[in-house]
Amino acid sequence: MQGLLIDEARSGALLQGLHTGPDMLSRDYLKAARRVLEDLVAHPDPFAGLTLQRKPGGYARNLLAGDAQVSIWAMVWSPGCATSIHDHHCSCCFGVVSGVVRETWYRAINASQAVPVEAHDRAPGYVACMLPSGPNIHRMENCGDREAISIHIYGFDHQMHASSIETEYALAKL
Ligand SMILES: [Fe+2]
């Protein structure tokens, strides 16, 4: 299990803004997560002082805060790296701090294959929040030639789950 990158007080303050009630899949929760992310991406200075982990050629996850219901991560995307095509077992909210992250949406054609539907380049300041009931199948990729950083808030306990991913899909050959 990964340790926290920021001190407990800051971590607790971040989490406090997310606890809207017992239902972490509600619209109120998503609104709260959006508010937290909008604030983080608009005022990213605190991240400048953090020693974020990097993964050459890939993306690195840095745990900023987490409890039994939610976890907040800073993701560092190396140029050219990408996630798998995947959906989530929990709510997924993210905001871009620096660089550009391309998000491609997919439609499943069976239990293991998906086709692309649309793609968007997400620039600094962009924030998205989604529930797992979508279905929300996507892939994130740093198409640029410099590093990108994004903040992700997931509705999962980082001590219980290794990641937010529910199902991974292969690109369907049509
Ligand atoms: Fe995702």
UniProtKB/TrEMBL annotation:
Entry's transmembrane regions: none
Covalent cross-link 3'-(S-cysteinyl)-tyrosine (Cys-Tyr) as placed by the record, residue numbers: 92-154
Domain of life: Bacteria
Entry's Gene Ontology BP terms: L-cysteine catabolic process
Coiled-coil features, chain-numbered ranges: none
Family: Belongs to the cysteine dioxygenase family.
Protein name per the record: Putative metal-dependent enzyme (Double-stranded beta helix superfamily)
Keywords: Dioxygenase, Iron, Metal-binding, Oxidoreductase, Thioether bond
Residue positions binding Fe cation: 86, 88, 138
PANTHER family noted in UniProt: CYSTEINE DIOXYGENASE, CYSTEINE DIOXYGENASE TYPE 1
Any one GO MF annotation of this record: cysteine dioxygenase activity
Pfam families, per database record: CDO_I
